[in-house]
Design a protein that fits this description.
The structure is a single chain. With 529 residues, the chain is an alpha/beta fold. The chain is built from twelve helices and 16 strands. The longest helix has 18 residues. The structure holds flavin-adenine dinucleotide and iron/sulfur cluster. The site of flavin-adenine dinucleotide has 41 residues, from helix 1, strand 6, helix 7 and helix 12.
């Protein structure tokens, strides 16, 4: 008698990656269950939480941090043991962390994906840019990406690059005044300003209204112009997928012939449920995916699960320009300076991206002035003046994968469900440290070019929320967790849809690549199920 299953495919995690995979599979006529640890929360409620919050600069604040679905917001959930406190933002609700991302949607460069063969450092992807290109296009269409078809995104000032089979789905938004002024004065010094492709639609698209440019993207877009995974969780349901919330997966069960046979989840009331399927996709975020695999003792014959953890560890700089630039108008970021994104220097030190941050600067400006003792009418005057001239650069470095940088289930601590919390060990290496003086030299040139006054260059290193490498992709099952299709080397029917598969970090935000890979996973599974 034929075996019966609860679903053809079970997807764990309803973030942008899991929801896109679930939608594609449901659209292809497969029965799909989508498991989500958190709850479904309507946009209006998150907006209300944000407006009522006394800590507006804390992006996690409007989102619940339930003790049975804890996030990195909780000090007790993530314990750091290395020299750097890696504490990336994450959310647990239907739609996942893209509820409060910045929506930057870059493609990797061909050389990023062949780092070892091009520059002799790090690792190569087992697939090439050309292999992934059709799925990049589909991911951009899914997310409603706006972008310029004319720029060399490698930052070298050449013709449009990397190659595309079709134009961006939507045209770019108008340049903010700040971007225009910095570009006008710094590009004559040789800096290449590149528009940042992003998932903030410039026209009504897939049920979303056009962006109104009011700069609330982090912590939440009030109108849904900015993409979040919740759109595709809804699409997946409409296409027939069954979404189960308050369902934290805590075990993947191994069967015969290297197959996964079931996933076990626990609810906040302590109920345990076992579900079977032909195929499984774990899409539970770059830290939680390796945790689930390690707790289940699956996919780890290489001993690489949880290792090779990378973020785009960064630094930042503030200065006052000699003219009004009016930060805080338009989206939270719009692009930046990419001269050091690619080139021979990557043999010696990390690639560098200088993003121009565009938050409303008034709270930071006011805090700095009050700390200096400025009060009363003088405080008002100085806020008006300095907020109009405030410039912030948010810079990131390319990381290399090191097995010692790792995430693991905590050996002793448990959350309210009795499931281990996280422990992370992270050190910043010499490849990144060697890049820092070059980034700082650029900072001083930017300030000089704007005849400005340097406020500060951050000390130490900063988190950037981009998790990669933790379930690393590679051709060799001995030193990697998944193959070029994101299928685990150890289990034929287990795929990982997470930015954690990315083996070479480059300097660009990883989510579009993750969505492209997720749609590709769905295509592979749809052919086999
Ligand atoms: C402030 C901020 C800004 C960012 N800006 C950008 C940007 O501009 N561009 C970019 O590319 N990236 C950005 N990122 C990163 C981006 O948000 C992530 O790469 C992306 O959300 C990853 O998607 P995901 O689906 O893998 O994970 P998530 O979105 O985190 O979704 C995972 C889901 O799985 C659920 N889950 C976890 N564990 C379990 C379990 N055991 N059982 C069931 N469900 C589980 C979670 O509740 C969650 O809903 C930013 C991140 C932050 C915090
Ligand atoms: S600028 Fe405003 S409308 Fe546009 S994406 Fe950001 S929050 Fe949404």
């Amino acid at each position: 008698m034929a075996e019966t299953y609860d679903a053809d495919v079970i997807v764990v995690g309803s973030g942008a990656l899991g929801s896109n995979a679930a939608y594609e599979l449901a659209k292809a006529g497969k029965s799909v269950i989508l498991l989500e640890a958190g709850l479904r929360i309507p946009r209006w409620k998150i907006v209300q939480n944000s407006r009522n919050s006394s800590r507006r600069s804390d992006y996690n604040r409007p989102y619940p941090d339930a003790e049975w679905a804890m996030t990195t917001e909780s000090e007790e959930y993530l314990e750091n043991t290395g020299s750097f406190a890696l504490r990336p933002g994450m959310l647990k609700l239907v739609g996942g962390t893209t509820w409060h991302w910045a929506a930057a949607t870059w493609r990797y460069l061909p050389a990023d994906m062949k780092l070892k063969s091009t520059y002799g450092v790090g690792r190569d992807w087992p697939i090439s840019y050309d292999d992934l290109e059709p799925w990049y296009q589909r991911a951009e269409e899914a997310l409603g990406v706006v972008g310029s078809d004319e720029q060399d995104q490698s930052g070298q000032g050449g013709p449009a690059f990397p190659p595309r089979s079709k134009p961006y789905p939507l045209p770019p938004e108008g340049k903010t005044y700040m971007f225009q002024r910095l570009e006008a004065r710094l590009s004559p010094l040789g800096f290449n300003f590149i528009h940042e492709p992003n998932a903030r639609v410039t026209k009504p698209y897939d049920g979303r209204p056009a962006c109104a440019g009011n700069n609330n993207c982090m912590p939440v877009c009030p109108i849904g112009a900015m993409y979040s995974g919740g759109f595709h969780a809804d699409h997946a349901e409409a296409a027939g997928a069954k979404l189960l919330t308050d369902a934290t997966a805590y075990k993947l069960e191994k069967g015969a012939n290297g197959k996964i046979v079931a996933v076990h989840y626990r609810t906040s009331k302590g109920e345990d449920v076992r579900l079977t399927a032909r195929y499984f996709v774990v899409a539970a975020h770059g830290l939680e995916t390796p945790k689930l695999l390690l707790m289940s003792d699956v996919a780890n014959s290489s001993d690489q699960v949880g290792r090779n953890l990378m973020d785009h560890t960064g630094i930042g700089m503030h200065f006052l320009a000699d003219e009004e630039v009016w930060g805080g108008r338009g989206a939270v970021q719009q692009g930046g300076i990419f001269n050091r994104r690619d080139g021979e220097h990557r043999r010696e030190y990390a690639a560098i991206k200088h993003a121009i941050a565009n938050p409303v600067p008034n709270p930071e400006v006011a805090k700095r002035l009050i700390d200096q003792g400025v009060l009363g009418p003088e405080l008002d005057r100085r806020i008006r003046d300095e907020a109009s001239r405030w410039v912030e650069f948010s810079t990131v470095f390319e990381m290399l994968p090191h097995p010692t940088n790792r995430v693991q289930p905590h050996p002793t601590k448990r959350d309210a469900l009795g499931i281990p919390t996280l422990t992370v060990h992270y050190d910043v290496d010499d490849y990144v440290a060697a890049a820092r003086p070059h980034a700082e030299a650029d900072f001083h040139t930017f300030v000089k070019g704007m005849n400005g006054q340097l406020i500060d260059i951050s000390e130490g290193w900063q988190n950037r929320d981009h998790l990669m490498g933790s379930v690393i992709m590679g051709a060799d099952p001995k030193d990697s967790v998944v193959d070029g299709d994101c299928r685990t080397h150890d289990h034929d029917n287990l795929f990982l849809a997470t930015t954690g598969v990315i083996p070479a970090s480059g300097v660009i935000n990883p989510t579009l690549t993750g969505v492209a890979l997720s749609i590709r996973i769905a295509d592979t599974i749809a052919k086999e199920v």
